[in-house]
Automatic annotation (TrEMBL):
<dbReference type="GO" id="GO:0051537">
    <property type="term" value="F:2 iron, 2 sulfur cluster binding"/>
</dbReference>
<comment type="similarity">
    <text>Belongs to the Rieske iron-sulfur protein family.</text>
</comment>
<feature type="transmembrane region" description="Helical">
    <location>
        <begin position="178"/>
        <end position="194"/>
    </location>
</feature>
<keyword id="KW-0812">Transmembrane</keyword>
<keyword id="KW-0813">Transport</keyword>
<dbReference type="Pfam" id="PF00355">
    <property type="entry name" value="Rieske"/>
</dbReference>
<feature type="transmembrane region" description="Helical">
    <location>
        <begin position="106"/>
        <end position="130"/>
    </location>
</feature>
<dbReference type="GO" id="GO:0005886">
    <property type="term" value="C:plasma membrane"/>
</dbReference>
<dbReference type="GO" id="GO:0004497">
    <property type="term" value="F:monooxygenase activity"/>
</dbReference>
<keyword id="KW-0408">Iron</keyword>
<dbReference type="GO" id="GO:0016705">
    <property type="term" value="F:oxidoreductase activity, acting on paired donors, with incorporation or reduction of molecular oxygen"/>
</dbReference>
<keyword id="KW-0472">Membrane</keyword>
<feature type="domain" description="Rieske">
    <location>
        <begin position="279"/>
        <end position="350"/>
    </location>
</feature>
<keyword id="KW-1015">Disulfide bond</keyword>
<dbReference type="InterPro" id="IPR014349">
    <property type="entry name" value="Rieske_Fe-S_prot"/>
</dbReference>
<feature type="transmembrane region" description="Helical">
    <location>
        <begin position="66"/>
        <end position="86"/>
    </location>
</feature>
<keyword id="KW-0001">2Fe-2S</keyword>
C-alpha cells in the first residue's frame, strides 16, 4: 500500500505538502500574478489597474448623451435669464419699469427661476458625468512625506492629461462642447448685471413730489385734512399728497416716498434744541415727519404721545418727535426728515415745500447738499 502511494505522495510533495485536490497549483498562481502585473503595466490611467474600474462603453455613451442634455438645458436657462433681464427696460419717463413692485416681483421670479435652473442643470450634468462616464477609483495611499519628490513633480503633467483622458473630457466631444456652451451665459451674466449700477441717480433720491401748496389727504382715502381735524394734543394721522389722477391715484413708489406722520403737539413741548427753521415748519403744534425709517425703510408708525417717541417696530429705532425726530435709540443714525406744513386760504393743511433731507434708508451722500 505504501509502495503503491509512493508516486502520488511524491507528486503531492512536488506540489506542496498542504495542497488540496482541485485547487490551483502554485505555478498557476504565479502565472495569474504575472498576468495581473502585465495588465497593470499596460494600463495608461493615472491610477493602477487594480484600483481603476472603468464604466461599460454602453453606459458611458448613455451618460454622455444625458449629461449633454442637461448642459443644453442649462444653456437655454441661461439664455432665458438674459431674456428675463432685458424684458424690463426703462419706460418713457426714464424710470426703470422694474421699480414698480408688481413688475419687480415677476422679474425676480423669472430671473431667479432661470438662473436657478441653469445652475441645477449644470450640477446634474456634472453628476451624470462623474457617475456614468468617469471610471470608479478605489484609491489607497500610505502616509508619505508631504513634499513631492522631483520625479512626482515632473510627472504631474502626464498624470493630469491621463486623468483628463479617463474622465472623458477629451474623448467625449458632445459632452465637452455642451458643457462649454452652458457656461457661456453664466459667465456673461455678471457682466450684464453691471447695467444696474448706472446711470447715477443724481439728486433723485433727495427729492419727492411734495411741493409748496400741495394739499394733504388721509392715507387710503381722498379726504382732505384741515388743521382743525387735529385739534387734540396727541392726535396722529398718516397723510399723503392729494392725487390729481382720480383713476389711478398715486403710484406705490410715490406713496412710499411721500407718506408722512402728522402729529399734534403742545407747542410748549417742542425741545429748545429745535432750530427756529424747524419750528417755522410746524403749524399750531402740528408737525409732519416722514413715516419711512432711516435705517432700512420700515414704516415708523408707532407714536407714544406722553414721551413724544416715534418707534419703528422692525429694529426698534426710536425718534424724538419733540426734537426734530432725532434718533434716541436703535440702529438708525439719521433723524426722520421733516416736512414743512402750513394752511391754505380754505384752512386745509398743505406742504410748504419738500422734505428737509432725503427720505428713507441712509445712503453715502444722503446728508450732503444738492
Amino acid at each position: 500500500m505504501t509502495d503503491n502511494n509512493t508516486n502520488h505522495d511524491s507528486g503531492a510533495g512536488a506540489e506542496g505538502p498542504d495542497r488540496v485536490i482541485g485547487t490551483p497549483s502554485p505555478a498557476g498562481e504565479s502565472l495569474a500574478g504575472a498576468t495581473a502585473t502585465a495588465h497593470e503595466r499596460r494600463h495608461e490611467g493615472p491610477y493602477p489597474a487594480v484600483e481603476t474600474h472603468p464604466r461599460p462603453e454602453e453606459m458611458q455613451r448613455k451618460g454622455e448623451k444625458l449629461a449633454a442634455l442637461w448642459f443644453l438645458v442649462a444653456f437655454l436657462a441661461g439664455i432665458g435669464f438674459f431674456v428675463s433681464y432685458f424684458s424690463f427696460p426703462p419706460n418713457a419717463e426714464g424710470e426703470p419699469a422694474i421699480a414698480d413692485p408688481q413688475t419687480a416681483q415677476y422679474a425676480n421670479m423669472l430671473m431667479g427661476g432661470t438662473i436657478a435652473l441653469a445652475l441645477f442643470a449644470i450640477g446634474a450634468g456634472m453628476t451624470v458625468w462623474a457617475r456614468r462616464v468617469m471610471p470608479h477609483y478605489e484609491v489607497s495611499s500610505p502616509y508619505d512625506e508631504l513634499p513631492s519628490s522631483p520625479e512626482e513633480k515632473g510627472s504631474f503633467s502626464d498624470f493630469f492629461m491621463q486623468g483628463a483622458h479617463e474622465s472623458g473630457f477629451t474623448k467625449r466631444p458632445l459632452m465637452r462642447r455642451t458643457l462649454l456652451l452652458a457656461m457661456v451665459p453664466l459667465g456673461l451674466a455678471p457682466i450684464v448685471l453691471l447695467r444696474d449700477t448706472g446711470p447715477l441717480p443724481g439728486d433723485k433720491l433727495k427729492h419727492t413730489m411734495w411741493e409748496d401748496g400741495m394739499r394733504m389727504v388721509v392715507e387710503g382715502t381722498d379726504r382732505l385734512i384741515r388743521a382743525s381735524d387735529l385739534d387734540e394734543v396727541g392726535g396722529m394721522v398718516t397723510a399723503l399728497p392729494e392725487s390729481h389722477d382720480p383713476e389711478h391715484g398715486l403710484s406705490l413708489n410715490d406713496q412710499a416716498k411721500t407718506v408722512v406722520l402728522l402729529i399734534k403737539m403742545d407747542p410748549a413741548d417742542f425741545s429748545d434744541e429745535m432750530t427756529q427753521q424747524q419750528l417755522d415748519w410746524t403749524h399750531d403744534g402740528i408737525v409732519a415727519y416722514s413715516k419711512i425709517c432711516t435705517h432700512v425703510g420700515c414704516p415708523a408708525a408707532l407714536y407714544e404721545q406722553t414721551s413724544h417717541r416715534i418707534l419703528c417696530p422692525c429694529h426698534q429705532s426710536t425718534f424724538d418727535a419733540a426734537n426734530g425726530a432725532k434718533v434716541v435709540f436703535g440702529p438708525a443714525h439719521r433723524a426722520l426728515p421733516q416736512l414743512p406744513v402750513r394752511v391754505d386760504d380754505e384752512g386745509y393743511l398743505v406742504a410748504a415745500g419738500d422734505f428737509s433731507s432725503a427720505v428713507g434708508p441712509t445712503f453715502w451722500d444722503a446728508e450732503k447738499g444738492d
